[in-house]
Amino acid sequence: MNELYPLKFIPIYKEKIWGGQQLKHLPGKSFDPLPNCGESWELSGVSNNISVVENGFLAGNALTELAEVYMGDLLGEKIHAGFGPTFPLLFKFLDAADTLSVQVHPGDAFALERHQSRGKAEMWYVMQAEKGAKIYAGFKRDTTSDEFMHFVREGRLEEILKVEEVSAGDVFYIPPGHIHAIGKGITLCEIQQASDITYRIYDWNRSIAGGGVRKLHLEEAIEVLDFKAGNHKVSYSPIMGEPVELVRNQFFTTRLLDFDQQVLTDYILVDSFVVYVCIEGSFTIVYASGSLEVKTGDTILLPADLKAIELLPKQRTRIIETYIS
User: Fold this and answer.
1) Active-site option among 200, 248, 255, 316
2) Cα separations (Å) of 271 from 67, 132, 312?
């Protein structure tokens, strides 16, 4: 069996009512004729949206096929034991040319019972934001289901949501059960559990083609919402040449790495695949049997059995590193 190597996948583009054309500014992204491309799924284990390899001798193979053949060598032994051939995470870029609906995602237990799916915890890294762009994340104060429904019926839900103006580099973590929406004028990277279960709560009175409105899921949302106030913005301070932790939980661990010189990594203690999302700059991944050029907008899967990796930047570069602890 040939050795595994860093894998790049063919993007899966998604037309969205709130999408636009900003993702074309990322090198290599092309989604004509979609007029409103809201998402580019870079690495997906979601059913009916399984990523396909773009590079090397495994090109054309689906991610699930690789997991069935390479098992723990690809995913990590612990992850393969827990998830089988299902890749547990989803990586994507979003272009919010208009504000997304206010929504919430269920946790694992509720999603399994209702949808035979996993729940959805997610993290956002803001790549670009227009002046005054906003993120809605959580309630600004503790509330109740009755009060929540009162504000929904009156079209005043924004009054009880925590709203933050954002800029490039801001990071947010949204656990299952937490209300949220991405505002207009934001491009971001999203890292989440491999789930596409969303309960839409409020859609800003927006009409769709033909004059209708999108379906809401208030009954389901009420069952999973956490009505306590909370802070969802992640505080961090970048350190040149050293990984800085952003989020660590049972779903995923993410770290930010800024570097302008060689970085040597050793994942001998990590029983997991590792994913690099290149946010800025470009670099070369050097591994035992070859190398791979990586540019802004690329998402690369490092199989679990690749432990010693060398990163050679061509300029100042920023990546998000993700694995499962």
Assistant:
1) 200
2) 15, 41, 24
Question: Do the Cβ atoms of 208 and 214 come closer than 8 Å?
Answer: yes
Which two three-digit tokens encode residue 223? 């069952």
Phi-psi region of 182 (alpha: psi -120 to 50; beta: other; left: phi over 0): beta
- Among the residues of the chain, which ranges form H helices? 63-70, 72-75, 77-83, 108-115, 145-153, 218-224
**Amino acid code (one letter) for 80:** H
Tell me the whole-structure pTM to 2 decimals: 0.96
User: C-alpha 155: how far from its chain's center?
Assistant: 29
pLDDT in tens, 114-173: 999 999 999 999 999 999 999 999 999 999 999 999 999 998 999 999 999 999 999 999
What gap in Å lies between CA 162 and CA 142, rounded to an integer?
11
* Active site annotation includes 200: yes
Closest of 151, 144, 146, 195 to residue 174, by C-alpha: 195
Q: Which domains does the chain have, with CATH numbers?
A: 7-234 (2.60.120.10), 244-323 (2.60.120.10)
- pLDDT tens per residue across span 209-262: 666 788 999 999 999 999 999 899 999 999 999 999 999 999 999 999 999 999
Which phi-psi region, left, alpha or beta, contains residue 91 (left: φ > 0; alpha: ψ -120 to 50)?
A: beta
